[in-house]
Design brief:
By secondary structure, the chain is an alpha/beta fold. Helices cover about 50% and strands about 15% of the residues. The protein is globular and about 50 Å long. The chain binds 2'-deoxycytidine-5'-monophosphate (DC). 2'-deoxycytidine-5'-monophosphate binds near residues 95, 98, 99 and 179.
Amino acid sequence: MKHKSIAIDGPAGSGKSLMAKMLSEQKGYTYLDTGAMYRTVALKAIRSNIDTLDGKKLEELIKNIDIKLEIKNNRQHMYLDNECVDSLIRTNEVSKGASDVSKFPPVRLFLVDMQRHVAKNHNVVMEGRDIGTYVLPDADFKFFLTANNEKRAQRRLLQMQKDGKDTTYEEVLADIVYRDKQDSGRDFAPLKKADDAIEIDTSEMGIDEVFNTLLRYLNGK
Ligand code: DC
């Protein structure tokens, strides 16, 4: 039996993580945050003193990397060398590093394999940058969420402060601008709306409004 899949793509801070979580709970699907996987590779590179823009070294790194993905009670946990790194990957340094390492095809192909494997065995709500265009081009539903830079930076700042991270609005905004440019400018599987994705600008929308909009599409109304 083919499993169901919902793809949610968009830039950082567009609201896709929260929506993917809420939708996965509503539908009883597995939630997969693919950004967390790129972040874990970046953390490994940083810990190994590898420049996150050094494609050659990253290609070697990825051959021996020990990454595990655990999904428990619909919560995703990332393990690096058998250590849970869920909180460690949520820093500005790792955000930038994740965008850097995600440019390189060997890194992407390694992670895309893991992502497709999950989608083959579970109904999924998968969020990222290239889910609708590359990872799951046949997804049952595809959404592309956007929002203006200021709103996205505000949202991320609030989230990071809630998680006890020490950062400023300016730092978060700079991170978003850097990553948007790099993620949409790369050659292989860039951040891009799939032709058949439904685009929603969430700048002026509240959480419930975005969620209800997604549900209306899923329910065909
Ligand atoms: O969603 P996020 O902010 O945690 O993602 C971190 C970085 O990982 C993002 O800037 C680009 C990269 N990424 C990607 O290239 N493709 C994905 N499907 C998900 C994330």
